[in-house]
Amino acid sequence: MPRPPSPSIPEKEFVYGALRQSLRLDGRAMLEMRTPTLTFGPELGWVECALGKTRVLAQVDGKMVKPPPERPLEGIITIHSELSPMASNEYEAGRPSDQEVTITRMLDKVLRRSDTVDKESLCVLAGQRVWHIRLTIHILADAGNMLDCACLASVVALKHFRRPEVEVVGDEVTIHHPSERAPVPLSMHHTPFCLTFAFFPDTTTPPLLDPSHLEETLSAGLLSVALNAQRELCVVQKAGGIPLAPDDVLKIVDIAVQKVRELDKIIERALQDDWAGRNVEVR
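The chain above was modelled as a monomer; its predicted structure follows.
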């Protein structure tokens, strides 16, 4: 499959010159994020998130399984991502790209290892029955910063999902249909969001938030910070690139705290608007 040509020398010089003056091609400020657009599907746990032209579909489903013997009191959470040529002709079907591996690993750290979902609340019958929650990520279009968009879609899908009510009598487990009893939301400890900053070879160029595809291509390093609105830092990831001083990283974290609080308000408002239009009883 032919790959798109790399940016030309005049294009590079133009972008670098604009960024040195704190100007971006799409008119945003250096620390301005594209406004997320959330679209909820007919099923609970089906969410499409768009950051500009970057689009990600997240879907959550659950089934009851037997837990592993080493963790009999905890539910199971698995994360699967799919980055196909539909997102961009840079990617090949059936061959995981570096970006896909990075996104899956980062989401695993942000959502599963940071205990976003209370795994013990997914236990139905100790050692016999637990909920297996599966999160599937489909990258629909890549216009830059897929990681932040995928993380945002994943968090909203988990908050939007409802599992069926379960009744346990002795060793007998009964799963009630949503028409019989209201489905139950997942118990979540916190709501982490991921923010990616791009750095450039010229140290006089300030870092920018939410890079576009061209800005990602021309950057000399990316720093991804995952944290929640309570200022709890979950993950800091920097895969190569130019070195950063500790003070620079601390400044980025301070900026991320403000942006995450704004994101949290947007998400809660979108979820409330969606539930207001649904005919589902919420406990």
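The first strand starts at residue 36 and ends at 40.
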